Amino acid sequence: MTATVGSPQAAPRVLLFSMYPLDRGLWGATTRITQLRDALARRVQLDVISGTRAGRAIAMARFVASRRLGGLAGIYVENSTALPGPADLLFLAIARTRRIPILTYVRDAQQLFPEYYRTTSLKRHLSRALFLPAVRLLMAISTIVAFPSAGLAAAVVRNRRPTVEPTLLPPGSRIASASPVDPAARGILFVGALSYAVHGAAILLDAMRLARASDHQLTLICVSRPGDEPSGPLPSWLRVVRAEGEEIDALLPQVLATITPRRRSPYNDLAVPIKVMEYLGYARPMIVTDTLETAAIVRGAECGVIVPDTAEGLADGIRTVASASPDQIRLWAEAARRAAVTNSWDVRAATILDLLRVNT
């Protein structure tokens, strides 16, 4: 897919190159890219190429044929979990020959971590074997490479001197449209997938059962795509909701706190979940397990509680927030909102343009 959106004709022209389709709903990566697309479009004339590998190849060919590369002030690339295709690499190499600066964001490296990527087929074995060579080639073509965390950068660059210096560009926050937190609310909100054991589905459900022993009004609101919710029969206090983006805002009056139950693991320690940054924008206290990057965000913002990655630890965190004074709950919520403003998608878009040296 190719599109052009953005500011008046006098503004610089930038290309957002997404290795994900942006017309199939909001989740994880597409939430990030869509928010950045909108923020960048408020500052520059923005061309967008997105889609599956085959769709991108057609869009890139048309882009080159129509001479759209001419006049570009920069290219921002959102890499996908899948490998970049030959057409992707060729297109970006052509752009480099024309001295167009390219900022590539490497969002994850799940192929390197067995808890997320099991090599159950020949295709997956090949994907794991080719991941580092393909990503490093993409990095070599780029002018600047960005990662969500220093840990992920180290995992990708390990044992090799990088051709360009990694830059940190963690996810941003969307400021939700919702009333301030109600200390009497009893909903605990989880957004995302619980399909892997390391996502913490088992300890989250056990924690809710434990916490409800002292507060029967507590409920769990699970916003997930079909197939990503907890498996098996669901308890009456768990509500599964299909919502995305601003649709989630309508749930917030019922929400006392957000929760991130991820288990400690090599990948979870270096990952910066998009949902954690989105939670800041909901302006509710946050309950998170002590995975390194997530705990650092909450600790730095002073916007909630950090607990061990066990059912008992999560239950203690839920009880701590549920029994806190209204003043303490509001302090946590206000701190989350301040952190969201500091880390908004508009701030991230401005950083991207600064790195590309695009004057707006």
Describe the structure.
The protein is an alpha/beta fold and 360 residues long. The chain folds into 2 domains: 2-172 and 344-355, 3-Layer(aba) Sandwich (Rossmann fold), CATH 3.40.50.2000; 187-342, Glycogen Phosphorylase B (Rossmann fold, 3-Layer(aba) Sandwich), CATH 3.40.50.2000. Helices cover 40% and strands 17% of the residues. Helix 3 (86-97) links the parallel strand 4 (72-78) and strand 5 (102-105). Helix 1 (28-41) crosses helix 12 (345-355), helix 6 packs across helix 10 (311-322) and helix 8 crosses helix 11. The radius of gyration is 21 Å and the shape is globular. The two termini are 26 Å apart.
Structure summary:
This protein has about 350 residues and is an alpha/beta fold.
Q: What fold name stands as the CATH topology of the largest domain?
A: Rossmann fold
Report the portion of residues in β strands.
Answer: 15-25%
Distance between the termini: 26 Å
Radius of gyration: 21 Å
Order of helices and strands: EEHEHEHEHEHEEHEEEHHEHEHHH
The CATH architecture of the largest domain? 3-Layer(aba) Sandwich
Number of helices: 12
Average residue-wise pLDDT: 92
What would CATH call the class of the largest domain? Alpha Beta
CATH homologous superfamily classification of the largest domain: Glycogen Phosphorylase B
Q: Which helices and strands occur, and which strands form pairs?
A:
Layout: E1 2-6, E2 13-18, H1 28-41, E3 45-49, H2 53-65, E4 72-78, H3 86-97, E5 102-105, H4 122-141, E6 144-147, H5 150-157, E7 166-168, E8 187-191, H6 201-212, E9 219-223, E10 238-241, E11 255-260, H7 266-270, H8 274-282, E12 286-289, H9 292-301, E13 304-307, H10 311-322, H11 326-342, H12 345-355
